[in-house]
Write a structure and sequence with these properties.
By secondary structure, chain A is α+β, with helices and mostly antiparallel strands. Chain A has eight helices and 20 strands. The chains are: A alpha+beta (353), B mainly alpha (736).
Chain lengths: 353, 736
């Protein structure tokens, strides 16, 4: 099965619901064959964006292009996209086979060939032999795969996934997201994936678009977002970083010397000049020791979680959240500690300076 | 996209063309469906199509032809797109407006209004719209819809736009146009000129408005009706609450069978209770005779008048109130009552301080429903009213019989309408948002506490007594059909049934019974109306629930409001609207069918909305993103999933069409007589035996239909066992 790959472009799209502006001004370009995640807290406009791409909402202003063609005014049934719904939306009165063949028959294909194609696609997602079942007779994970098959069988230019894993339990979620990513890599289709789970987004995406209040807060590869957050919001949202105050002491080329609670560390300057700065401070950016060089602090709370220990530590940076995955025995609250900086979990935040 | 836009335009333009050149433009005697017109299409003047009519001097049809030509020009000369869409929509709108204007201005004998005649000179009169005109009107409406679709309105969904446009057109023609006609009719003389004399005379008529009863005299009819409605509403609410409490909060052994009561108002033609009451308590009623012979008192005619109507209405409407209040009483979260008990309140205090206040909005709702039902009731007052009727019967007597005073009927109808619409508005606006019923998805553990003992016993006694009374009254109906002459000769006989439903055999079946004629007409019309009602109602429900279009809430509100229009008002307004061109259909089956469809549609809408709310909205969206258009989505996804709701709507509209009397009695004709109207005629002639026999047969037919329906729905399973099916019990629909 070969998939078409369509590019997607939003040009200055605005969406109002009555007096409420859900999306003030959105411009976005997605390359063919890419899996792009729309990530953000609830109410950030990510689902609205996806639904506008599907044709289920029409933009109040602006243009949407799929595969270079302007589809802004095209209704959903005439767009070359298909969608996997959060609730799966499998038709309960049709068998699995009928569900998957439905879209093909809508497009005018004869029932016979449509059945065959449906069977092939069900094989592809690992559901061979379940054509005659009703959706209610399948497990949650199987239903999810039927929903994917039903969308994929149409070979759309773009596949849309609206929080496809949110109805699965945690263990299954990990497996299915790997399957989706693997399928997308194998077939090479363009996919737009909506989620509010940052871990899921990091795991499946080529690029992530983080949205906030209807705007793009940052767009980039998972590594870029994690390692170089453009704002405190991103630092907090991707990987729950502490955001602390630091001081840029000097800048040489692209490297800045940054003073953090008495310790100094070299970080990419990201255009900052000497002076106060905000620093994204990952929970694993330090080693927790009881002696040595670093930031002094006192343990406020500690929680033992098997393979690691979580601490909240009071010190010159205020209360920060730290993970220690090295020591065997957790320290008691009240213990004095020294935090040894490791440069990998630290980044200067360019905004606000 | 372009090809689809053009294809549907081609279709309606072709339809418009055929309607203009090959179908009779005007209505004619003999009937379109007789097909005799085919042979003389271009020779006989009365059946000529629109184009020929225009050529032979009816200049008012030229604009219609020109507009269709403009639309065709746009189709072939301009590319599809927003500018063309806008132009097409304008053509459609102007077309509708023109047909409206010329249809209303030129009547059978020329200009309808003197002013126009003075301005434009004489014009030849024209008959009512016929097949050609109706189709062209629909084509214009569709031009608006398709034009809007090309402009991209509602995401360019032509099916949705066409549905909305046609529904608005239908509701305008069959709900609002009649009402407007009724009001204008009140201000017209026999020759059609304006006069306010009739209205002025009637609106201050002491027979309507007198308050003399406060000083010992007789009050006006408006106040009497109002007073009766208040009494009925109060009584039915209290009794309904009693029944609801017994059914849900006591250990009463037969409480399950109490619920059977709720089926009664659905299957009972509205005048039957009144009829049974006369047989029990009337001058020669059986109970009357027992009392008279035992005590020697002369009871006389006390039953005829407000008292009798009130008893009959209590019997008729208590089940409806019961049904409403069961939901209210069950809807109160048990945890509220449990909380109260843990806060040191005994059951009596909990009932008084927590349960009753929580039920208050529900009680108010039941009161308003009882009020509207009582106001709109026509059957019981007709049978029991005697000399002192109520508004609905007075309207009837103002147009039939010797009086024939349309202005008076219109004034009375307006008064009635104001009363019922006020109650409806109170129900919708004031009570909206005051509902304490807790119907969340979450399971709310706990059970309703039983009634305190000092409430339980009186409540159960009242319920049992009333249920016994109801059973007696219905027993009368069964029994009465087999008695020779009620009150005089109580020997048993099959005579009434044989006279009504006799069948003879001489080479073929001959339906010799007097009832067959109206019986078959009723079945036929109910069978035609039912699927139409269901279709229109469910389509509307789908639009309201799943489509966002400007004016949606107004549309919904107007539809629901039409449910509060009493049948009598509908009947009188249909007569006034559809007796003369441009739309003439009195005396046909069409007017009966239209009346049923638009009178019962709100029930279909409500059922459809409830059923649709249970369907996940992403099912439609999934279908759309899979390339199916709205029409295919409707057919393949929505309709199969809504089967129970569709069946319920079908059965309900069928049954309502059979039992309805208030509007129907104005609209029946010698050719199309309905069972209820026929029975009322029998009652007026004093032929109680046949009337009762006929009513029992009707009730039996409806029990069969409803029972069959319950079996059908009960057996089908859509979801896995464990999930409760979405099939709403039919009886719920009556709770309005």
């Amino acid at each position: 099965m070969t998939q078409k790959r369509g590019a997607v472009e939003f040009r200055a799209v605005r969406k109002n619901f009555g007096a409420f502006t859900a999306i003030p001004d959105l411009s976005l370009a997605i390359e063919p064959g890419e899996l792009v995640t729309l990530l953000g807290p609830s109410g950030c406009g990510k689902t609205t964006t996806l639904r506008m791409l599907a044709g289920l909402e029409s933009p109040s202003d602006g243009q949407i292009l799929i595969g270079g063609q302007d589809v802004t005014r095209l209704p959903a049934d005439r767009r070359d996209v298909s969608m996997v719904f959060q609730s799966y939306a499998l038709f309960p009165h049709m068998t699995v086979g009928q569900n998957v063949a439905y879209g093909l028959e809508s497009g005018g294909m004869k029932p016979g060939p449509a059945r065959e194609r449906a069977t092939e696609t069900l094989d592809l997602v690992g559901l061979a032999g379940l054509e005659k079942r009703l959706p209610a007779e399948l497990s949650g994970g199987q239903q999810q795969r039927v929903a994917v098959a039903r969308a994929l069988v149409l070979e759309p230019q773009v596949l849309l996934l609206d929080e496809p894993l949110s109805n699965l339990d945690a263990r299954l979620r990990r497996r299915v997201r790997t399957e989706i990513r693997e399928l997308q890599q194998r077939l090479g289709f363009t996919a737009v994936y909506v989620t509010h789970d940052q871990e899921e987004a990091l795991a499946v995406s080529d690029r992530i678009v983080v949205m906030k209040e209807g705007r793009v807060a940052q767009m980039g590869s998972p590594r870029e977002l994690y390692e170089s957050p453009a704002s405190e919001f991103i630092a907090d949202f991707i990987g729950e970083a502490n955001v602390v105050d630091g001081q840029v002491v000097s800048v040489e080329g692209d490297v800045a010397q940054v003073e953090l609670g008495g310790a100094t560390v070299a970080l990419p300057a990201r255009g900052l000049q000497p002076g106060p700065a905000r620093v994204s401070f990952r929970a694993n950016a330090v080693r927790v020791t009881t002696g040595g060089q670093g930031i002094a602090g006192t343990i406020a709370t500690s929680a033992y979680l098997g393979d690691h220990v979580e601490y909240e530590i009071d010190g010159p940076l205020g209360r920060i959240f730290v993970v220690d995955d090295e020591s065997e025995t957790p320290l008691r609250p009240g213990s004095a500690v020294v935090l040894e900086l490791r440069p990998r979990g630290l980044a200067l935040i360019p905004e606000g300076t | 996209m372009t090809s689809k836009d053009n294809r549907r335009l081609d279709l309606i333009l072709a339809a418009g063309l055929i309607a203009l050149v090959a179908l009779p433009w005007y209505r004619f005697n003999g009937g379109f469906f007789g097909l005799e017109w085919l042979g003389e299409l271009y020779s006989a003047a009365k059946v000529r199509p629109g184009a020929v009519q225009a050529l032979t001097g009816r200049w008012q049809l030229w604009p219609v032809i020109a507009l269709i030509a403009v639309a065709a020009g746009l189709r072939f000369m301009r590319p599809a797109g927003p500018p063309r869409g806008k132009a097409l929509a304008w053509v459609g709108a102007i077309g509708i407006a023109w047909m409206l204007a010329e249809g209303l201005s030129v009547g059978l004998r020329g200009w309808n209004w003197g002013l126009l005649e003075a301005t434009f000179g004489d014009v030849a009169g024209q008959p009512a719209f016929g097949a050609g005109a109706v189709i062209v009107g629909v084509v214009f409406a569709l031009l608006i819809a398709f034009g809007a679709a090309e402009r991209g309105a509602l995401k360019g969904d032509a099916f949705v736009l066409a549905s909305i446009t046609l529904l608005v057109l239908l509701v305008a023609v069959f709900v609002f146009y009649p009402l407007v006609s009724m009001f204008t009719g009140a201000f017209q003389n026999f020759d059609g000129s304006f006069t306010s004399e009739g209205v002025r005379n009637n609106i201050v008529d002491p027979k309507i408005w007198s308050l003399a009863c406060l000083a010992g005299g007789n009050c006006g009819i408006a106040w009497r009706t109002f007073f009766l409605a208040i009494c009925t509403a109060t009584g039915t609410t209290l009794l309904g609450l009693v029944f609801a409490l017994v059914a849900t909060r006591t250990g009463f052994r037969f409480k399950k069978s109490l619920r059977l009561l709720t089926v009664l108002p659905i299957i009972t033609p509205p005048f039957v209770v009144g009829l049974a009451l006369t047989m029990l308590l009337g001058r020669s009623g059986s109970l009357t005779q027992v009392i008279e012979s035992a005590t020697g008192w002369e009871l006389g005619r006390w039953l005829y008048g407000l008292t009798g109507i009130w008893i009959a209405q209590m019997l008729s409407f208590t089940p409806i109130s019961f049904l409403v209040l069961i939901g209210v009483v069950e809807g109160i979260s048990p945890s509220m009552e449990e909380a109260s008990q843990t806060l040191r309140s005994d059951r009596w205090r909990t009932f008084r301080k927590v349960s009753l206040p929580l039920m208050a909005p529900g009680l108010a709702n039941a009161f308003l429903i009882g009020f509207i039902e009582s106001m709109a009731d026509f059957g019981n007052p007709l049978v029991l009213g005697g000399s002192g009727g109520v508004l609905s019967t007075e309207i009837f007597f103002a147009v039939v019989g010797a009086q024939n005073d349309p202005a008076r009927a219109a004034v009375l109808a307006s008064v009635l309408l104001v009363f019922t619409l006020s109650a409806f508005l109170a129900q919708r606006l004031w009570l909206a948002g005051k509902n304490y019923s807790t119907v969340t998805g979450k399971g709310d553990g706990g059970r309703h506490i039983a009634l305190p003992r000092r409430v339980a016993w009186p409540v159960i006694s009242v319920a049992v007594a009333w249920a016994a009374f109801t059973i007696t009254v219905y027993g009368m109906i069964v029994f009465g059909g087999f008695v020779k002459v009620w009150g005089l000769d109580h020997s048993l006989t099959f005579d009434h049934y044989i006279r009504a439903f006799g069948v003879a055999w001489d080479g073929g079946i001959r339906w010799t019974g007097v009832a067959w004629d109206s019986f078959w007409t009723t079945m036929e019309i109910a069978l035609i109306a039912a699927p139409l009602t269901a279709a229109v109602g469910l389509l509307t429900a789908w639009l309201i629930v799943r489509q966002r279009f400007p004016g949606r809430s107004v549309f919904e509100f107007a539809l629901m409001m039409s449910f509060a229009i009493p049948g009598t008002v509908i009947g009188i307004s249909y007569i006034m609207a559809f007796n003369l061109p441009p739309l003439q259909m009195t005396g046909t089956a069409v007017i009966l069918i239209a009346c049923f469809v638009f009178r019962n549609m709100p029930v279909g809408v409500r059922g459809g909305v409830a059923a649709m709310a249970q369907l996940d909205g992403s099912l439609d969206e999934a279908s759309l993103t899979l390339g199916a258009g709205s029409a295919r989505t409707m057919r393949k996804v929505i309709l199969p999933l809504m089967r129970p709701a569709i069946l319920a709507a079908l059965v309900y509209s069928f049954v309502r069409a059979i039992t309805s009397i208030s509007a129907v009695i104005f609209l029946v004709s010698a050719k199309y007589n309905m069972a209820t109207a026929y029975i009322v005629g029998l009652v007026e002639n004093g032929e109680y035996g046949i009337a009762i026999a006929y009513s029992s047969v009707l009730i039996l037919v409806m029990i069969t239909v409803i029972g069959g329906f319950q079996l059908l729905v009960g057996e089908r399973r859509l979801r896995r066992p464990g999930d409760t099916s979405a099939a709403p019990p039919l009886a719920k629909d009556a709770a309005t």
